[in-house]
Amino acid sequence: MKERDKGMPERQLSPGLQTLPDQIAERIYAAIVGGQYQPGERIREEELAVTFGVSRGPIREALRILERDSVVRVVPNRGAHVTTLSVQELNDIFEIRRVLSGLLGRRLSKPPPEFLERVGESVKELERRARGTDQEAYIAASLDLTLLLADASGNALLAGIMRSITRQSWRYTQLALKNMDRRKESARNWRALFVALSSGKEAPAAAAMEKLVEDARRGAIRMLEDGQAEDAAAAAAKAAAKAPASSAPGRKPRRIAG
Q: Which helix (H) or strand (E) is 224 found in, with range?
């Protein structure tokens, strides 16, 4: 398995990794979000065991960790496969994330000045990156800010759940922010959140957090549906190219003289 060059910062999503399966799960996850494994592709335990120089036991445990986050599905007698992306799963994940984000916004509605200043600087960085063409850099900065807010919530359980749901939604977030206009919209939403947090009021902060997530959901759905339509069109074109000439619409079979 190749090392990924870009993608989700491992240090941010899994602080204090201790067990070998945890560390292996993080590396496999990085490969998945980095595009080295495609949706539906099988992840072979024996290859990973050789790659990491371990027995297949820790590999199986690592895959189970990823299965809990809905990134991998382990099927008896068929092995582990990367889960496919779907509108249904997208909606389910982002519905939960929106509610949790609203709660997070309410808990952060009265932030200390030094924390608010740090958030403001991060938002400026996002705005700068939104004007560029580096999608991965924007996503990484957005992730850093999301987890900064989660860790500042004062609720360790909420922070942990936010980390998990961020992992589950990461591939959809990549889709949502693939378009530059969508990244600019995202940066505007982050700015609105900063203004809401600065107001010191719960309702605006919660609403701004929820809008940030909802707009990401809508953007991901558009990209996912557009991609599915393109795949269907490509498959139809491929099938048509392979079809015999006599089966083309409006074409009569040629009569053989004799």
A: helix 202-242
Sheet containing strand 42-43, edge to edge, reads 42-43, 79-82, 72-75
8 A C-beta contact, residue 63 and residue 21? no
- Whether 221 and 89 have beta carbons less than 8 Å apart is answered as no
Give the separation between CA 93 and CA 87, rounded to whole angstroms.
10
Does the structure show a pLDDT above 80 at 157?
yes
Q: What would the DSSP string read from start to end of 41-94?
A: -EE-HHHHHHHHTS-HHHHHHHHHHHHHTTSEEEETTTEEEEPPP-HHHHHHHH
Other CB atoms within 10 Å distance of the CB of residue 258? 3
- Type of residue found at 214: E
**What count of residues does the chain have?**
258
pLDDT digits (tens, 9 = 90+) for 43-79: 999 999 999 999 999 999 999 999 988 899 998 888 9
Under the banding of pLDDT at 50, 70 and 90, the label for residue 237 is low
Look up residue 116 and give its two tokens.
Answer: 């608010």
Amino acid found at 159:
A
State in Å, rounded, how far the first CA of the chain is from the last one: 62
Handedness of CA 13, 10, 14, 118 (dihedral sign): negative
| Angle separating helix axes 202-242 and 87-107, nearest 10 degrees | 160
Residue 3 has pLDDT above 80, yes or no: no
